[in-house]
Input
Amino acid sequence: MMGDENKPKKSKSELKAERRAKQEAERAAKAAKRVDAGKKKSLPSVPANIQADNPQVVRKVTKQLEKQMVVRHADEQKKVNMVVHLHQYDRTSSITRSIGFGKQAIHPAIVQVGLKYSQGFITGSNARCIALVDALCHLIKDIKTPKDKMFKFHLESKLKQSINYVEQCRPKSISMGNAIKFLRSKLYNLPSDITEDESKDVLISALRMFVKENIELAGIAISKSVITKIRSGDNILTFGSSSVVSRLLCDAYNSGIDFTVTIVDARPKLCGVDMLEKLVHHGVKCTYLHITAISHVMPRITKVICGAHGIFSNGYVMGTVGLASVCMMANFANVPVIICCEVYKFSEHVQTDSFVKNELGDPRDVLTPHNVQHKKAVLPEMWDKDCLKALNITYDVTPPKYISMVVTELGQFPSLSVPAVLRMRSKISAY
Amino acid sequence: MDDTAVVKKFQEKLNNSNYNPGIAAIGTLLDQLKVDKAETLAELIANLKKVGEILLSTDCHAATAVSSSCDLFMRFITLAGLELQDFNRVKEILVQRGEIFLLRVLGCRQKIVDYSLPFINEGLVILIHSKSVMVLKVLENAAKANKKFSVFVTQSCPDMTGLEMEKSLNKLNIPVTSIIDAAAAYTMEKVDLVLLGAEGVVDNGGIINKIGSYQVALCAKALNKPVYVVTESFKFTKIFPLNQDEIPNRFKYKQSIMDCKKGDMSKEHPVVDYTPPHLITLLITDLGVLTPTAVTEELMNSYL
Output
């Protein structure tokens, strides 16, 4: 009897132990699976816009765009080897031929602004951002949410479609990207208890305020800050065209400081001519030359003041192609370099060279000679030959050691302090 | 407010505080704050600023340090919430904050000396420039810790203060040799590291120090020797010079000489020069051991 009672007890505990062991084994197996899956997901994903040489990725992107009724801009096929991974849009291929009408179509203001970007009618970081914000305000005003959808989600999908279209016209600038991020965060934080019209008002006034604070007022603040650095007798060098720099040079002239400006320009865009026009019209003493001659003038220059397209978190400055050469030459001649850049153009990304991510312009622009009257344009006619390739890169990246100071509306900083400035700005404002 | 009384108080404090002009300036401002008869906050701040100006107009040897410490003191005491109705209560708060600031600043030197000990190892040959109380304290502490090292000190024209430094180091039984300023490059190959003080630390992490520091730092960079700067945090100033020309004149020349020459300083020798941040390896301060880039962030924290 005693033996009988003992036996079931033992086998019960044995069974329990067996069951526990099984459970533990299953749990361990599950955890291992999860860890494996986690490890696989932690590989960094390369963005699609720098994988133009991967046909799988291109096909995937085309399909995604088709769903949103956006046509992918065809790539010009003759790309130089080192930039094969970047898109090089063919200017002769039309992006608006199959643009539809109806509920799913892209808003005409967006179509207009995209075309202006792709044909080069609107250039310059600030100008592009302002034009985009304008078009987005039109879009928000005209949008009509269908009865079965929420305003937030409908606008978000329309926004996605519009931004994809604009990206296919011309890749986004850092300023445009930050403006879109701002709009998205405002949209996300919209209170859900207000009407659609009120939401639209909130978004439109937020966008207008964004432009006013971050572009117009920031430009005035930067101008006031840099004027304290300009002294009588200065010979200032500037590269290309920048709205911030032309404003501050005109303001410095108005405040009576006696200085001269040397404008350095580069092909194929020749933006410096616009800058020259503005300054000469205002009365500033200017000299104009091409980038090929800067080694001759640099010993007589006292400061270099330029604008930037954007600044990365590691202090590297992205500007029009040629800016890096100007900064290097200035560093060699011991001339301080001042970069004027609004804080909204600071990017959280990191880039150390000009190849990983850049914009390729139409290569045939580079082949057209500068002086068409004297030299016949032979090379564009030879474009079909296999042995001829051209590279028209739009931006380049300058390392922080060549830059003495970055001036923003929040103050003057060395180039490596960008993350600190971003932290400071998030403490100050309600971003 | 009596100008001469203020200057006398400053001189007294200078002698008491072991020759630290920044601390002396802060002490003078605090005393002035206690006896000030202003009725409004704006008037009080204006009076204190006037005292700062008076101190700068004396021929004090460290205009940069005095200027930066006055700025930081004013900044610190007014950072509190001062919306109370009773002005006496406001003044009490200001005085309290002033005392806290002075206490914090008095403890600076010991912290710096502790942080710098690991950098001075056995058998090192150190090059120092001119006379700096902070550098002297650092070397004194290392000698007390029984570390054996030797020092080269530049004589530092025109006031030859390097020779005074040599005397002080001899008293501490540290093997020291004084060299003429022109021999800095010649001696650099024998040296393991360069130790500099600073009269002021500018926005981008560069320093303003006795004339000749830039030269020494350039030679060190050319021969790949590290340059360490030991300095208190109240010397951080908000100016951002791009080159030697942009250092404000009131830091470069003595006030008496500026009054005498009435603005034409082209024939005068400056007393300080600016060393850019790319020549400096590390700054050892009471806030910790910082790279020149971190100085900008610290300045942002104090001024915002």
The radius of gyration of chain B is 20 Å. Chain B touches chain A at residues 203-205, 240, 242-243, 246, 277-278, 292-293, 296-297, 300, 304 (CB under 8 Å). DSSP finds 13 helices and ten strands in chain B.
